[in-house]
Amino acid sequence: MRTRIPLAVALLVLAVGLSCSKPAPVEVAGVDQRPSIELSTAPQQGDSVFYVVKFTWFSYDPDGQVLSFRYAVDPPFAGDTAWVQTTNHDLTLRFKSSQPGSGTPSGIAGTDYHVFAIVAVDDQGLPSAVQSVAFTSYTVAPTARLLFPTPNHLITAVTPTSVRLQWTGTDPDGPNHVPVKYKIKLVEQTVVQTALGLGSLLPTASDLQSYFSREGPAYASWDSMGSDTTVKQYNGLTPGTVYYFAVLAIDEVGAYDPRFDLDRNLLRFRPSSELLGPKLTVYNDIFTASASSVDLSPSRLNHVPMPSGEVFRFNWSATPPPGGTVVGYRWVLDPVNGDLSDETPRDNDSQTYRWSGWALEEQSTTVGPYTGDEPHYLYVEARDNSGGMSLVQVEVDVETRVGKFLVVDDFMGPPDMDYGPTSPNSFQPYGNFPTEAVLDTLLYAVGGKPYQHRPAGTLSQPGMFAGFDYDTLDYRFRRTVGLPLELLFRYPAVILYCGVRDGTGPSATLGCLRYITFRQTPNPLAAYVAHGGKLFLFGDGVIYSLMLRPGDSSSQIIRIITPGSFLYDYMKLQSGYKIGGSGTNPLDYMIGATPYLQSHITPGRRWPVDTLQTFTRVCDDPRVGPSSVRNQSRWGGLPCLDLTTEFNDWPSGFPGGLKTQLYVSTANSIIQILADGKSGSALDTLYLWRAVNYIGGARATNPDGKPVMCAYEGPDSGPLVWSGVALWFFDRQELRQLARAVLGSFGIQPATGDPSLFRGPGSAEHVADGPPPSAGARPIASARPSE
Questions:
Q1: S-S: 511 plus which of 114, 356, 502, 582, CB 3.0-4.6 Å?
Q2: Cα–Cα distance measured from residue 372 to residue 12, given in angstroms and rounded to the nearest whole number
C-alpha cells in the first residue's frame, strides 16, 4: 500500500533520518510513544555496492506493538513521497544504475546515487523516526555486437535494398546473462552531417559518438526491441545512400555501454540494387540449382522428382563475391503456411519446418521417405559478411511408382508402306529386317489375333512381352527430346532397346539413349538406377549410344572405359569390350547364345578347358565354368537363344549369322558386399557368344564363348541387365522366355486375370506426335498391339 505524507513532514523526517545524532525519546505521561527502527543490514553510508541490495531491520514500540513498515527509494526534496507499505522484516531491491561510469574488470560500469528510507508504524498509527542510508549502486553494463552484416570501421558495407540486420547481446551480471531490451536506430549519413554542422565532411569516430550518445540515457526516440528479438528487417532502402545502424543493450536496471564503435555495435552501410549475394548452389546426383540473390518468384522454383519411399540427400555450398566471406547457411523444409519470415528458432532438430540456425558447418540435409503425392518444399539460404543473401527454393515432386514397367522404343526403322488397298505391295516385306511395325509386333503382339494384311485366317504369334502389363514410349513420336526423370521414376523397371543406326546416326537426329548420355544432365537413366530403378538394355546400338560422342563417326567410338561413364559406373563393364563378328570371317558370326548355367556345360569336358578338343554340341559350351552354380537360383529360366526362321522370306534375305555385336573381351570381376552381408561377385554372366563352331585354342580375337549378356545386382545401384546384341534376330518364343526370366528377376510377373481380356501395352505419355503423312505412300510407324 502506498500513502502520501505532506511535504513538510517528509522533509522533516528525511532531515532527521539523515542527521548523525539521534536524540533520546522524551516520555510524556498520557501520550502515546512512537516506535523506533534500526537498519541491521544495509550499505554503509556513502558506500558503493552491487545494484542488488538486501535490507533487514529490527523495531520496538515501548507502549504497544509495531504492525507494519513503510519504505521509500530516492524520496524527493520537493513534493510528496511515495511510500511502500510492508509487514516483512527484510527486503531485496534492485537499484537503477543507468549512468555510465568508469570501467571495471568486467566492462563498463553503470552507476546511480540512491537513498533508502524506512519507518515503523505502531498499532496507534504513529510512525517512527526515519532511518535512511545513502549509497551508490553499480552494475556491469551489458554489451551488444552486430553479427550480420559484420561491422568494420575500414569499409562501408554494401547490402541489398532489403537488408536483415542481426546482433547479439550479453549481460555479465544480469539474470540469464541476457539484456532485458535493446535500443536501435537507423539514420542516414546526411542527417548526422546536418545535426553536427559537418556539411559534406564525413563523420569521424568522435562525431558519431557525439551524435548517437546525445539522447542517453533514455534514448526516447530510438526503437525498443525485447530481449528475444535480435534481428531487424529494413525494406526499400534508397540505393546509394549511406546509412548508420546503432544498437545498445540495456539491462534490468537501465545500465548500458555508451560507446558506439564501428567495429562492434555501429554499422555503416550502403544499399545497392545491383548487389549480388554469394553464389549458392544446391545439388545432389540428379539436380543442381544456383542463385545469387533472394528471389521468390515462381520462375525461380526448381522442380526435383523423387520416387516414393526413397530418401534424397541435398548438399549446398556458396562462393562469396570477390573480397567477401560466406558467414553462414540455413535451411527449412515445408515451413508452416509457407511463411519464410517466421524466425522462431527450433526447439530440437526434428522441427525442420522452422529455419535452422545460421551455421557454416551445416551444408546438407536429407528429405523423405514420402508415400503420398503431395509436393514438399526445401529452402536454403546463404549470406556473406557484406549483407548479401541468396536463396535457392526447391519443390520436391513425389512420384508414386505404378505396378507396370516401361518399354522405351529407341529403334528408328523404316515404316511399313501403304500403297492403297488394291496394291499387292502394301505392307509386304521390303528392305532390311526389321521395319518399325514388324519389330513392334515381334515385341508387343498379344497373339492369337487376326494378322492384318496377311492371308485370311492367319493369326499373330505372341510377342516378347505378351502377357505382361506395361506401358510403351516410342521415342520417334516424343514431343520433346530426352527422357524426363519424373516419368522414369513412376515405373519400377524400364526396358530400352536401340539399333546400331540409332547409336551412330548424325548428331542432328540423336537417338534417345545417345541423347540422354551426352546431352541431358544429369543422365536420367543413371539417376534412375542410382535410386533403385531396374533397367534392361539391349540392342546392337546400346554401346554405340553410350560411347560414341555426337558428331563422331562410328570408327571414333571410345574404346577405353573410364569411371564416370555409364558402362563403368552402372553396367560395371570395367575391363574391355570389342565389337565381334568380322565381315571377313563368317565362322565368327553369332548364330546363338548359350546361357551361363550348369545345364549348358559341355558333357565330358574338363576344366580348365582342353584347348585341343573340338566341341560341336549345340548350345553347350566348355567355357561355362564353376561360377555358373550361383546363377541357377536367379537365372534358371534362361533359354538357349537361336536365330529365328520366321523372317527368312524377306526380300533382302534374313541373315544366317550376326556380326558387329558387342562382347566382353577381358575378364571382369566385381566383388562387393552383397545383400546377405557376405562378399561375393555382384556381376553375373548370363550368355556366351555362340559362333558357327567352337575350336579349342582358337585365336584370342575370336568372340565365340565370350560374354554377351551380363547382369549387375549389388549395393551401388538398382539391378541392371544389359546386352549389346540385337535380340530381335532370335526366336520369338525364346525371347518370351528370356523376358520372363529378366522381369522375374526384377520381381515382375505376367499380368493376372483372363489373358483373352488383356489388351496390350498402353502409352506412357498418352500422346503420339509424329510427322503428318505424306502424299502417296503413308508410313505406318506404330505397333499393332492387338495382333
A1: 502
A2: 82
Cβ 182 vs Cβ 230: under 8 Å: yes
Q: Indicate the average pLDDT of the chain.
A: 85
User: Which grid cell sits at 340?
Assistant: 519464410
Alpha-carbon distance of 548 to 515, in angstroms, equals 11
Give mean pLDDT, residues 230-238: 89
Rounded-to-integer distance, Cα 414 and Cα 269, Å? 69
Q: How many CB atoms neighbour CB 12 within 10 A?
A: 14
SS3 category, 37? strand
- C-alpha distances in Å from residue 2, one per residue of 79, 85, 128, 358, 692: 15, 6, 17, 50, 117
Number of residues that this document lists for the chain:
787
Q: Is 316 exposed, middle or buried (0-12, 13-18, 19+ CB in 10 A)?
A: buried
pLDDT digits (tens, 9 = 90+) for 34-86: 999 999 999 999 898 988 999 999 999 999 999 999 999 999 877 777 899 99
Please list, in sequence order, all residues whose beta carbon lies within 8 angstroms of the beta carbon of residue 766, skipping any fewer than 6 positions away. Answer: none
Can you spell out the DSSP letters for 250-303?
E-TTS-B-----TTTTEEEEEE-TT----EEEEEETTEEEEESS----GGGEEE
At residue 332, what is the residue type?
V
Task: Give 2-41 pLDDT, tens digit per residue.
Answer: 444 443 334 333 443 333 334 444 454 557 899 999 999 9
Grid coordinates representing 573? 563393364
Higher pLDDT, 557 or 279: 279
| First-to-final CA distance of the chain | 102
pLDDT of residue 701 exceeding 60, the answer is yes
**Exposure of 464 by Cβ count < 10 A (0-12 exposed, 13-18 middle, 19+ buried)?**
buried
H helix and E strand count, the chain: 12, 44
Residue 775 pLDDT more than 50?
no
How many Cα atoms within 13 Å fall on the side-chain side of residue 481?
16
Q: CA 596, CA 638: separation in Å to the nearest integer? A: 9
Helices (H), 353-479: 436-444
CA-based nearest residue to 532, from 671, 715, 365: 715
CA distance 678 to 714: 11
- Please list, in sequence order, all residues whose beta carbon lies within 8 angstroms of the beta carbon of residue 49, skipping any fewer than 6 positions away: 43, 135, 136, 137, 138
Nearest Cα to Cα of residue 666 among 560, 779, 542: 560
Strands 694-695 and 683-690: unpaired
**363 Cα distance to chain centroid:** 9
Q: What is the pLDDT of residue 665?
A: 87
State how far the Cα of 313 lies from the Cα of 309, in Å rounded to an integer: 13
E strand spans, 193-237: 223-226, 231-234
> How high is the pLDDT of residue 681?
78
